[in-house]
Amino acid sequence: MTHIWQGLRSGEWVTAARMRGYSLILLGLFVLVFAGWIAVSDGLISSNGQPIGTDFSNVYAAGTLTWQGRAADAYAPALQHAAEKAVFDGSDVPFYGWHYPPFFFAVAVLVAAVPYAWGLALWLVTSFAAYLAAIRAVVPRHETWLVAAAFPAVFVNIGHGQNGFLTAALLGGALHWLDRRPWLAGVLIGLLAYKPQLGVLIPVALLAGGRCRTIGAAAATVAALVAISFAMLGSGIWQAFADSMNFTQTVVLEQGGTGWQKIQSIFSAVRACGANVPTAYAAQASLFAMLAASLAWLWHSDVAFELKAAALALGCLLATPYVLDYDLVVLAVAIAFFARHGLRHGFRDFEISLLAAAWIVPLLSRSVAGVTYIPLALLVELAFFGVVLRRAVLDRASHAPSAPGVAQA
């Protein structure tokens, strides 16, 4: 038992050979699972009656409605569901709501310009490539491709046809370019506004860090996106979006319409345990205040940028009550920046084992929560955030200099 504990403490069990082996095993297993999933499907409908790509059907249906000049109908659940059924020739597929701001119709229109299967493939391949490029830019090592590709959140995202790849690519890219191309980082952050709930702490970090050019570029990007959506879709589209937010908040979030085990927030964990809505919001607000204060201190300090970036990526996931398991692709950004810091300056106790836990947790989080109500991903993220803060404090206390001769990524 002592040997196991010492191994976890040092992280010596996470060897390069094991990383490659585990990654290849997971890749092989998931390829087989997806191949079997497609093989037993009836065309575009899986054996359980859901569309291939599940959530992607709402994006494709919204794009179809936009091509028909009816974009606002995507925000009306009954009309959106009818459009989703029409995509699959009237099949009684489940309802997948459209909850995105109007400027995300640009993506929907593009993927709906081709048949569904091609649109899904185009969406996943391009966004996956962007995700891999962002993570590889943060950690420019040859094994990064394999470890990032085998990250279990990748397969959760593919199974849902979701946007976790795009979110991680935008956030990872923005943080990577923040020092060298602050205006480009701002544009990427502005584009991230398509998932506004994941970006609420980004202004806190940027303001604390005095990143005025990035803030200006982000604000200008959002303003441009809003203006373009007004020009292309009319002012009524934003009213339709505003009207739909009550449904999203009450049915999807507060009543757990998506399923408590899928939502990876402290709000969902508290609600799953039987607490009422005000109690869940109070827990979320308390966590948000802690995260905001910690990030403000961290980004205003002189600690290594990699620690600031890792903490912000984790904060984006922890701060919102509405974060699903496919959003855990963003964990790869936090893992990559923290790993880069450790590779340059060495790892402290338990850090390597915690990175391994963060890497594997998307594979387990939904099923564990569904059976036990234990919010495994939330607990790992909180532990990870605490370790980042601990590392920042210890690094400052020791005044550790940067490793000489190490090129910046």
UniProtKB/TrEMBL annotation:
Domain of life the protein comes from: Bacteria
Keywords: Cell membrane, Membrane, Transferase, Transmembrane, Transmembrane helix
Pfam families to which the protein is assigned, alphabetical: GT87
Broad class of the protein's primary localization: membrane
InterPro entries recorded: GT87
Subcellular location: Cell membrane
GO CC entries: plasma membrane
Membrane topology: Multi-pass membrane protein
Residues that span the membrane, as ranges: 21-40, 103-133, 145-171, 183-208, 215-238, 281-299, 311-339, 359-389
GO MF annotations, alphabetized: hexosyltransferase activity
Entry keyword annotation includes Membrane: yes
Protein family (similarity comment): Belongs to the glycosyltransferase 87 family.
Protein name: DUF2029 domain-containing protein
